[in-house]
Amino acid sequence: MAAGLFLERANRVASQQVSLARDAVLLNKICVGLQGIPLALELAAARLRSVSLAHVANLLDDQMKLLRAVDRTHPDGVRTMESAIRASYDAISEKERQVFRQLCVFPTSFSLDQATQLLGRIEPIDDLPVIDALGRLVDSSLLFVAPAGPEEFRYGMFEAIRQFGLAQLTAEREIESTEQAFVDVMARLMERAFDGIGTGDRPRWMEMLNAESDHWRHALQICRDADQYASLVFCVASYWSLQQLGRETAFWLRKVIDQRAETSPHRLARALAGLGIFHWEQCENEIADAYASEAIVVAEASGDMDLLARALNTQALVYRQACRFEDAYHVATKALDAALSLSASRLVPVFQVNLGRCAALCGRYVEARDLISTARATFVRRGLPKEVSFCDYALAGALWRSGAFEESRDCFFRAFPVMVVQNDYLNAGWAFQDFLLMCMCFNDARSAANLVGIVRMIEKRTQNKILFSADGETERTVARAKEILGDTRWNHIVEESQGWDLSKAVDYVLCWDHTSISRQCEASRTKLQPLPPLPE
Predict the structure, then answer these.
(1) C-alpha span between 220 and 231 (Å, rounded)
(2) Nearest CA to 128 among 162, 87, 94?
(3) Which among 224, 229, 219, 308 is positioned nearest to 270, based on CA atoms?
(4) How many angstroms separate the CA atoms of 460 and 464, rounded?
(5) What is the pLDDT of residues 336-391, one digit of tens each?
(6) Between β-strands 154-156 and 144-146, what pairing exists: parallel, antiparallel or unpaired?
(7) In which residue ranges of the chain is pLDDT below 50?
(8) Spatial CA neighbour of 255 closest among 265, 243, 236, 268
(9) Is the pTM of this model over 0.90?
(10) Which of 100, 254, 309, 356 could form a disulfide with 338 if both were Cys (CB 3.0 to 4.6 A apart)?
């Protein structure tokens, strides 16, 4: 009896604690959504007399409806949030009101340059300089100066005010033209960013894309033109790839394909090839091959050599992963030839690396080394350390297969530290798998177990399948190492290394020495040094 009462009370207390935790989350969401505006918080709090916290939180997307006073003792001018905003809106000139309405299309803070570009695309406002209009809106409390860097001046708008402005924009039938102007501004920015991240200026452009993510994501959501939408997706796909966000890339590429009837063949083929790459990364060869094959058909029909090269390279990657090495080599050769036929293609060195890896798998080691080394030199000139490290690990794999173990190890060791600096988990995972095979050449089962754990950690982090080979080579290697160590010891080592981060994983392999395995744990040999700048 006593035990039953105790359990009942314990359940009641637990339920109350869960309820309090849930209410705290909702309160925080409401305060953040209303941006701490005193009047907004007061009006929202008044709602709690008749509705729940959850209901108030659900109304944050329609703050004009939410922020209406239910207490009739409020003065008429502040009985609703809308009336308070309208008082400021009515106090400015019609030209200033037009500027305010159009600026509401920005989902977050914006710069003077962005505002100028947007307003200039809609209607010239020569009689009202943009900076003067923004100053007037700040004075009227419709805008505020947002925190920014020391060399940048940005403007922000409270969400309740922005929703009021969007309602006025719709009422004045200006919403479509303003949203199109916003998409045009973002498209121009993304095109510049796409070019920028292919150069040594990549860090600055990546930082900019991070800072402007709310803006370009909003542009993707409101873009009405299928071709322009596809162009936006392709511009940010490189960013997502560098951020190792393959699933997000695939999500938006599928949306391009869903609009195939309105999308040009050029952009459709590119989306198909991109999805082929995504499914190749997931080791889903049949799906990847289907997308690559369709991309080839569309590209050939449209006569687009750039897209044909991309599609052929994707198919070569699929064949390589499926251990159809000769087929992969011939298709990769066609892809590189197609890229070289163009006057300029930033993809040539990428295709050279793929062809080089295919050549190595076919036993053409001299050709493999020449191709990968040529690509590496190009990436060094461009100042792209991530791509240089990718070439180093590809070269390591080719050298290892040719029997040049010491030189191969040196290439691996040159690649791994850069991957840490670049936070490049995905390429590191593939390189670790290659290094695992090399370790087993020297029957180093312990290193193999640690590398399996490391790759499992990276698979979870990147949501990519890595520890795999179509011909079973990796699986046989793992089975042999497991047999040498025994199940208990194997599982212990694998589990321990699954908890490492990329830096610790690289520290481990940098001390690997097949001539003296006992020295692997020497702390003095595991310290990473700052990377020297790339040569000109």
Answers:
(1) 10
(2) 94
(3) 308
(4) 7
(5) 999 998 876 788 999 999 999 999 999 999 999 999 999 999 999 988 999 999 99
(6) antiparallel
(7) 1-2, 5-7, 10, 13, 64, 69-74, 76-79, 516-536
(8) 268
(9) no
(10) 309
Which regions of 150-309 does DSSP assign to beta strands (E)?
154-156
- How much is the pLDDT for 159? 83
Q: Please, is 211 exposed, middle or buried when counting C-beta atoms within 10 Å of its C-beta (0-12, 13-18, 19+)?
A: middle
Among the listed residues 204, 199, 196, 191, the one whose alpha carbon sits nearest the alpha carbon of residue 231: 191
Which of 55, 170, 34 shows the shortest CA–CA distance to 102? Answer: 170
Q: What's phi and psi for 422, nearest 5 deg?
A: -85, 0
Residue 20 CA neighbour count, 13 Å, CB half:
6
Are 189 and 212 within 8 A, CB to CB? yes
Angle between helices 175-196 and 159-171 (to 10 degrees): 120
What is the per-residue pLDDT across 20-32, written as a single tens digit (0 to 9) for each?
A: 666 666 666 666 6
Nearest-CA neighbor of 216 among 245, 241, 193, 199? 193
CB atoms within 10 A of CB 67: 27
Residue with tokens 């490189």: 238
Q: What is the DSSP string of 93-130?
A: -HHHHHHHHHHTT-SS-EEHHHHHHHHHHH---TTS-H
The CA-atom distances, in angstroms, between 202 and each of 8, 196, 240 are 60, 6, 13
Tokens of 208: 């900019």
502 close to 460: Cβ distance less than 8 angstroms: no
Q: Sign of the C-alpha dihedral, residues 287, 288, 293, 296? A: positive
Helices (H), 422-472: 425-441, 445-462
Kindly report the number of other CB atoms within 10 A of residue 94's CB atom. Answer: 7
Please state, in angstroms and rounded to a whole number, the distance separating the CA atoms of residues 185 and 218: 12
Q: Which residue has the tokens 């091959």?
A: 289
- Where helices occur in 341-404 by DSSP H, the ranges are 348-361, 365-382, 385-401
